[in-house]
Specification:
The chain is built from three helices and no strands. It is mostly helical.
Amino acid sequence: ADDADREALHELVDARNPALAEAIEAQHAAGGRVFAAVGAMHMLGEQGLPRLLAARGFVVRAVTPAR
């Protein structure tokens, strides 16, 4: 990975996560139940969706698939 790769990853994931968190919050505020499925990369790091949603007051938990 070089600087260009890191910038591309930032633009594809980290830079989009705040808008995704805002959209999830807006759907919830509209009165609906929300189930959001995103790619694994959106779950990681300081700008990961779990952290952003928790900062907005959501309880975030992993869902284990039924076997």
